[in-house]
Amino acid sequence: MKFRNLILLLALAFGVFTLSASNEYKISVKAKQLKSDSLFLGYYYCGKLYVQDTLSLDKNGRGVFSDKELLKEGTYVLYFHGSKYFDLLIGEDQDFSVEIADTLSLPESVLISGASVSEDFHNYSLKLKAAQTEYNKLGEEIKATEDSVRKTEIQNYAKEIHNSVNSMRDSLINVHSGDMLGLFLNGIKVPEYKVDESIPDSIKPMHRYLFEKEHYLDNLDITDARIIRTPYFPSTIDTYINNKLFQISDSIIPPVIKIVERSRANDECFKVVLNHCMNYAINSKIMGMENLMVTLGRRYYLNGLTEWADSTWLKNLEDEISKNERSLIGMKASNIVLADTTNTYKRLYDLGGSEITILYFYEPSCGHCRKTMPKVGEFAKKYANDPRIKVVAVYMLEDKKEWIDFINEHDLSAMVNVWDPNRESYYWYYYNTSTTPTVYVMDENHKIFAKKIDVDTLYLIAENELK
User: Fold this and answer.
1) Which of 201, 342, 344, 438 is the most buried (most CB within 10 A)?
2) Same domain for 287 and 354?
3) Number of domains in the chain
4) Which domain holds residue 291?
5) Residue 416, in any domain of the structure
């Protein structure tokens, strides 16, 4: 009995010791050319590089990165002298060594040993770099040769290289299924579109588009927080949104919601993915992305699902949404009541064109308004006799003399000139007029289909819509 108790105690002691050891990381470095120099360990997070640790090598070029806490699994960078660096992939096994034989030949002169994830990633990186170098040479050779037979040979050889790299990647994915290397390599593997020869050529582009829209991000596991610590996250999401989707809000919003919903399986992924998509919506130059901002804001941020969000930021977001949500692209414009220069009141729908109405809010004291209004006036003159299109120019202040003088000064009589002298229309509530000038373009059903555009775009719209 005593012997068995002793065995149990030893087992427990060994278990405690093993657990303690496994909670530490230790990366031993040897670099003879960097004697008494400094090395830095950085890590990727959301596509950006941050400093993790610093190491001063001894006079023999040796040192150890270490801490009592494990590193978060992901892609790291070992760098020195500012611009010299190479990538490391760090998984669960964080006790390994790195030897740099020649600091002028990176990453080829680097030897990693002691952790299979880190070793295999390094070897894959070397193969990938060698393949890219060979591709470049073959590309130059193709340009230089006029022999069609030789060109075919080169192209076939390039395919062999490509297939060899992919074969190594797929093999490593199988070997490292579930660990950091498997996650990393699977994430860069783009689902392959296979051409269906049975469908007509005319619809093949749309067929490909629908495939990529549905499957481009299949291999990017945004339910695993380790994916956030790779250099290609979130650029892969950006590529999907910017290059694989039609650049209109109706095409972008459903797939973005789908991405965010996928990420909700992991709290950190949800926070990062949602914030990234919201930043995209806020900073996008694409017309109509306010729709995405409003959708994400109402669905997640203002619905109590983002406890990490600062209360001041949330209040500012709510204010911004409130300014935009009643005049989004695709919505029917509010039929506000405005007065003309004779103080005759009419509804907006009765003032516009039969096919296109351009609603233009301005203030004479606004410098940009003074520059653009004469150009808008010339546009209105060009279509003055065309009932299909009208410019409804809304003076936003209450000084009638200033308004009339401005109309006469810039010869704006071809426009429908209106104002709201008694502030009864609440146009600022129904339309976002926080900046001037502000432009909204509506179709024959009074649906907003363009906003915040310049005069040149007005001409393009008129030329294309009034055929």
Assistant:
1) 438
2) no
3) 4
4) 220-324
5) yes
In a domain, 53, yes or no: yes
Element (H, E) at 392: strand 389-395
Q: Among 187, 205, 232, where does a domain finish?
A: 187
The full length of the chain comes to: 467
Q: Would the pTM count as exceeding 0.85?
A: yes
pLDDT of 1 above 60: no
Same domain for 241 and 359, yes or no, is no
Q: pLDDT digits over 144-177, tens only? A: 888 888 989 989 999 999 999 999 999 999 999 9
Q: What would the two tokens of residue 13 be? A: 């002691």
Query: What are the residues whose beta carbons fall under 8 Å from the beta carbon of 438, sequence distance 6 or more?
Result: 360, 361, 362, 431, 432, 451, 452
Note the Cα 199 to chain centre separation in Å. 33
For CA atoms 118, 119, 123, 129, the dihedral sign is positive
Q: Are residues 294 and 392 in the same domain?
A: no
- Tokens 């390094």 found at: 122
Distances (CA, A) of 78 to 87, 101, 111, 135, 148: 6, 14, 13, 27, 45
19-39 pLDDT per residue, tens: 434 589 999 999 999 999 999
**Shared-domain flag, residues 390 and 288:** no
pLDDT digits (tens, 9 = 90+) for 298-323: 999 999 999 999 999 999 999 999 99
